[in-house]
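User: Structure please.
Assistant: Input sequence and predicted structure:
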Amino acid sequence: TGTDQTTRCHALCPASEAWHEVGRPQVHGYDMSCIATLPNFSFVSGAEEKVLRAFQAPVNFIDNFIRLTGTTIQSLDREKLPEGASLPTLGLSNKAVYQGEKVVPEEERHVKDQFPDFYFTPQVLKEPPTEETLVQNTLWPELHKMYGHGYELYAIASNREGTLVASACKSAQPQEAAILIWNTSTWKQIGRIEAHSLTVTQLTFNPTTDLLLSVSRDRTWALHRLDIGATAEDLRIERVAHSDKKTCPHKRIIWTCTWSGDGQYFFTGSRDKLVVAWTGPNWLPVGQPLSLPESVTALASPVMAGGADGQITIAVGLETGHIHIYSWSTEYKLLKVLDCESAHHLTVNRLAFNPGQPELLASCSQDHSVKIYDITANDNL
């Protein structure tokens, strides 16, 4: 997602051995701010509006994705999916288009509807789509809108099963800084967490348990356990831990956080140029904080357990655009530095490791670029 008001899907195409944009699921009227992926080719996104929107891929996109990437997909119920999606003139919601649906000829359309960008035509792609095809024929239909926030969306995350989504918006007071919990089977709000007094800057679920970690501009982090009951509406929320401003190593805004792959540790990064590791059961700092040359704006760790020697890989993105790769057990060991030539020229906004290929790291930045690196090699892909 980006400030160009679009959500874009990229994939590795074996025919060209390169990464290409294969879909543009959302073309919006607001700057996009956050996204959380869900199972079965679906996602929830947030923009500079008060509404969360959920999407799922149509059949035509899935067929082309399989054709372009060689991926095999078993679990989708194709019969219930629409063929594509179209965007009504002056609208913000993608409408589903089903197979066999009657299309009004262009000469019979109302004058306000005679814009080809908004009409879906099924495509059979054997090579990456062109810009015209991306804009017109790779939209995903909108499943649901979720209302509840009072200000622009800022952070969103989903749990490992994709059954829960947590979201937060910009705020200058505790009531509006609340984290809302949504059930993805009903798209209803089933929980509310008030743990911070200012904007929540990032949310992330533990990869192995039901813990939700949040960090905020108020210089604190909070940890909650979310237990789903017998029904979709039954959610029990328990506060597990919360940092104390007086004793916390961070003295300025905490911008980012990430879990280790085994779920035993989490890391926080802040404007005061520190990365701190924390562990349970009391969730206290482990070892000495890592001091960086600039503000820490993004963190990521592979979604897998540590190596045979117990080392955890962690990527650190900085305000300057540099990315530092470390290994950690109780002390940090620098493995690699990606400078402005290989990484970014402006602030790193987010980092993420590929769940299936932990050597692949993706980054996005305020310099409007997305890059993918093989951290075991010398160059980015």
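The longest strand covers residues 18-27.
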